[in-house]
Amino acid sequence: MTDEMRTTMPEAAPYSAETWPIATCLHGIPVTDREGVPLHDAPPKSWDAVFLEVAELGFDRIELSDSHLRPADLEPSRRDELLAIARDRGVAIPSLHVQRKSVIMPGDDGSRNLAYAHRSIDAAAAWGMEVFSTGLHQPFTAAQRAALWFWTVPGPVDPDDPEVWATAVSRIRELGRHAAEVGLLMSLELYEDTYLGTADSAVRLVEEVGLDNVGLNPDVGNLIRLHRPVEDWRELYARTLPYANYWHLKNYARDEAGDGSWHSSTPATLEAGLINYRQVVRDAVEGGFTGIFLMEHYGGDSLGVCATNQRYLRTLLPR
Length: 319
Prior knowledge:
The chain has 319 residues and is of the alpha/beta class. 39% of the residues lie in helices and 14% in strands. The strands form 3 sheets. It has a 5-stranded parallel sheet, covered by helices on one side. Helix 4 (108-126) links the parallel strand 3 (92-97) and strand 4. Helix 2 (44-56) packs parallel to helix 3 (76-88), helix 4 (108-126) runs parallel beside helix 6 and helix 6 (162-181) packs across helix 7.
């Protein structure tokens, strides 16, 4: 992808504030019910309850994460049933997010995750989706699962190893080509301690992959929440927004000592947190961003906060 292609700006935004596609995550939906039945295996009435709740909060789109339901592992008849239920509730599913299945995990895990990603791309295309979203983050450690906020505990770290880096580029390019063949964008999520964990590394990775349909999900919230020194959010966005094709939005209130001796964060609404989304969204739209916005929040009434954030975001978009 050339620099000229990266910096070309459209004459006007392709959507208005009212029509811009904004989806919600399903963090506020339990992955299993009270009887321990996973949402993936749930009866139609359980799926209907999810889409009804989402619709009543004002969303007409969701991101389907494989933490809740795995399209690659769902029978076609069940897929058709779920899509019919979503359609009846007026909810579309434009994106699939495959998380914590890094294609460069050690041993056979990386190869298995690569095969799963290929199956997920085919499933996303069969479902009529637009975006295959993923990253290089790995499963939580036991300590992360036990913590109040998982980001306060260090997780796995991608190695400073040229061979592993080359494997990441090769496998992501392989997936990106597959996604292009079936008409999907592929978006790579910023995430700490991975090759997508800093602005420079993320940009280098997507440039080395070198495919027009492969871009970044500039989820800077994943980085500013860390209880340690982090890059300035303004610089993170300045470097990554030109490569953005899909976008998870969330915010955190952040505090830190002037001498760097301590750092803290807690989830916040888009309006109240550290990141000034009024500035960032304006910069993104003026710079040519045309992708789907995905509302994300951890803790409390996650879906309710996502709904609040959607209403706020629409006030920032061009009319």
